[in-house]
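so i finally got all the pieces together for this one. its two components total, 498 residues if u count the protein bits. some of the lines might not be protein, just check the labels. i wanna see the whole assembly predicted at once instead of chain by chain like last time, that was a mess tbh
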Amino acid sequence: MTYINQLSSHEDESVTLKGWVYNSRSSKAIHFIELRDGTGLCQCIVALDEVGEEAFEAAGTLKQESSVEITGKVVKDDRSVGGYELHASGVKVIQVAENYPITPKDHGVEFLMENRHLWLRSRRQWAAMQVRNTIQFAIHRFFQQEGFIQMDAPIFTGNAAEGTTTLFETEYFDEKAYLTQSGQLYGEAMAMAHGKIYTFGPTFRAEKSKTRRHLTEFWMIEPEMAFYDLDMNMDLAEKMLQFVVKTVLDEKRAELEILERDISVLEKAAAEPFKRISYTEAVEQLKSDKTANMLEQMETDRKEELESIQTELEEIKKEHGSAKKWRKAQIDQRIKEIHARIDQIEEDLRNIPVWKKSAAGFEWGADFGGSDETILTMQYDTPVMVHRYPAEVKAFYMKRDPEDESLALALDVLAPEGYGEIVGGSQREDSLEILQERIAEHDLPEDLFNWYLDLRKFGSVPHSGFGLGLERTVAWICGLTHVRETIPFPRMLGRLRP
RNA sequence: UCCUCGGUAGCUCAGUGGCAGAGCAGUUGGCUGUUAACCAAUUGGUCGUAGGUUCGAAUCCUACCCGGGGAGCCA
């Protein structure tokens, strides 16, 4: 048995491929079967005078996603997907699939999500999962090379750690338990044992968020390092992200092409240092004339585009009546595109005034909203690191800036193109007394944090860490518009199956 | 929880007060090189649900259900 991604080393040899029918086309004496085997696609040519009547007829019964074994000669041919095709000498049908629901035409999100277990077989979804795997492995490789130990934080926790986010509640024998929203506090304990550690696991948030950036269950990578300050933390986050992007560019070009990803953005992110700006600088930028003008320009651009595509829509609708059949199909397709684009523009036009107001009226001390992040990242073409946030909006365990007590030594990495926050982290407070004060200020139950406070009693050291959201990172690198396509079976508001 | 857009054939959609439509999928037939193949024929409907307005409702009104996008919150 040979896999499709190995065909280049079997040119002119006879091999057997096992897989599923991705698509097929037929005429009287020849079938074209696009075979999918999990490693790629290969067109198989089944000709009547090559395989005989029985095998030819069997091949004719194969519908989308039927399973099959095809033996034949590997021939280089640029007309085929992947550059090679198989000239069949034998066809063995394993199972004929009837009425596979996902056809090669367009489908809506709801339908595809209901059929997620099958949707995973489609080409774009396949490519996204291949890239996800490469990202996951690259993250492990990076940290292992850097001398980090992978350690796992518990998934059941006894307390709602930071007290801010809504957690999933469950039973733990006779006690209440919560699904973890972060392994960080445990990460700090583990870093005091091993120096540099990282966790790689699922986290859960019961927030009722319905956006393209949210899942209720997602995977997070959380490194934690003893003797690291904020600058070392930022250096590490940048080095890791660049390693990951570079690895994907090196190993997954073909998949990025299937996803129609604009590679130039990734190449810049891999090569150029990330912009680093303080929260205060970011606020100034939001309130600047430059930002106001940019939004103004965006609004007029959208309005002009709307006018021009509406004119086009009128024109092609007139043409439709007298058009030939193939042209009609072309027009129908274009009409659909225009309707979708109009919806998008109308939404932008509703949003832009709100964004303008949010940016121009932004007050120092507040946290950035989704639109503020988008506006900030639109002005750069690499990821942006924003550091030193107002302590008020950040978690209790973050260390204050010795030069300005109102600031926390926090960092966020914002991905370009509106993908939002992919990394959030900080230098941690290492003083026992200050931490006790903070816990009291936040009205957190001190007894639940006794073990955490022990870390400051017994050899406390400056230390830092961050959390990387895997799905948001995959979405950004793949250029996907929604995190639901970055994980095999997404869990989100209103979606528990399949 | 709030704002906003939507729900019409298996799928994607058109139809905005007067006979329920198209493309694809399915089925049947035709065609040796197709690339979302093509050509011909054909099957397929609780117009999200309930109520109301009207001579007449997919279309207008009310409530509810479901989905998309966003706010808040966040990775």
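The CA atoms of residues 423 and 468 of chain A lie 5 Å apart.
Chain A has 16 helices and 17 strands.
anyway lmk what u think
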